[in-house]
Fold this protein.
Amino acid sequence: MMKKSIIIILLAVISMGVFGQDKGEKYLSPSISASFGRQYGTYLYSSYSASQPLSVSIDQSLEFGYFFANDWRFAIALDVPYAAVPRSQDDNGWEFSHAIGIYLNPSFAYYVPLYSDKLFYVPEIGVRLGVELDYVDNVHHNGLNYKGHYRGFSVYANLFGLEYRVSKKFAIGVGVGSIYYTLMKDDQRYVYEVWQFTFNNASVSAKFYL
């Protein structure tokens, strides 16, 4: 009887530290991601490369996630990205291309347990649908701004994501590296289409399980 009681107590203590991703769980997750680096681009009639200052990309989002099966998660997020890219330079300074948008972002992910049902590898695929305002600080034309409105979508895969379940109610997520396809159109039906594979982006998120 004593041995049986000790075993039951040990199992209870061990189970207190295990937080699997179970069907029916929900969470809210604010997150921010940023990337910095050289920018290379090609326009219809010209190409450019800029190495200084660095290009900057920042993406802020709020995500709601739901586990529709054990270790399978569906989420929907509201994203607000911003990017600033140096294009060219003259005596007046650097010309920057800016973009700010708002996107709806549904996604799916699978949680692969790595350690003690607390640390998970989390590959993710998703779609971003939205609108974007692009404008240029044109130092070559007395600072005039040239603006364009775009709408479209991206299909992406996040390749190297990890999540650590700190407690039943809280987890920390990190991610590096992604591949995505983007198709955007402006008011004049100009089409912007690109495939990208990046390793210089990083994201950190806090997840609050409900």
The radius of gyration is 22 Å.
